[in-house]
């Protein structure tokens, strides 16, 4: 899937790292729909950040909860907590919405797909020690149940 994004990654001068084990347990999922979720998260990170953004993709097993945690992180331009709290809402667009041609459906659809698979996609979190209105690392996390 990452290879599909190489032109955009190069255009954005982005760096992508990933830590995804090849021996993760199976989940009961529609691969096309889940692919749409992570394509949307990656496209957003590449389109709406400054050149040189660093992306990190991870997937790990959480044995206690019998779930797989998938994360997409970027060190992009940041958002206020209020913007973060609303990003998965219907018709919500990012902070640069005047420059965007989007309808505000992408992250809403991501949440619907993950929820339909029995999982949960976490609200965007801000983590910054320097500022209360800006984030240095934005993270989307989703939990998906493993097959029993």
Structure commentary:
By secondary structure, the chain is an alpha+beta fold. About 25% of the residues lie in helices and about 25% in strands. It contains 4 helices and 6 strands; from the N terminus they run H-E-H-E-E-H-H-E-E-E. It has helices at about 5-10, 30-45, 80-85, 105-115; strands spanning about 15-20, 55-60, 65-75, 120, 125, 135-145. Strands 1, 2, 3, 4, 5 and 6 form a 6-stranded mixed beta sheet that branches. Strand 2 and strand 3 (about 65-75) form a beta hairpin. Helix 2 runs antiparallel to helix 4. The longest helix is centred in the N-terminal third of the chain and has 17 residues, at about 30-45.
Helices, strands, pairings?
Elements: H1 6-11, E1 15-20, H2 31-47, E2 54-62, E3 67-74, H3 81-86, H4 106-116, E4 120-121, E5 125-127, E6 137-145
Parallel strand pairs: 1-2
Antiparallel strand pairs: 2-3, 3-6, 4-6, 5-6
Helix pairs in contact: 2-4
């Amino acid at each position: 899937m990452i290879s599909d994004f190489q032109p955009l990654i190069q255009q954005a001068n982005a760096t992508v790292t990933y830590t995804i084990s090849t021996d993760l347990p199976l989940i009961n999922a529609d691969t096309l729909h889940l692919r749409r979720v992570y394509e949307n998260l990656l496209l957003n990170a590449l389109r709406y950040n400054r050149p040189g953004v660093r992306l990190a993709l991870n997937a790990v097993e959480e044995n206690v909860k019998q779930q797989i945690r998938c994360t997409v992180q970027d060190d992009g331009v940041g958002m206020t907590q209020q913007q973060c709290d609303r990003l998965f809402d219907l018709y919500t667009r990012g902070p640069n919405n005047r420059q965007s041609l989007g309808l505000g459906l992408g992250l809403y659809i991501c949440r619907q797909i993950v929820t339909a698979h029995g999982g949960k996609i976490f609200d965007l979190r801000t983590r910054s020690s320097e500022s209360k209105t800006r984030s240095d690392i934005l993270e989307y996390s989703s939990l998906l149940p493993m097959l029993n």
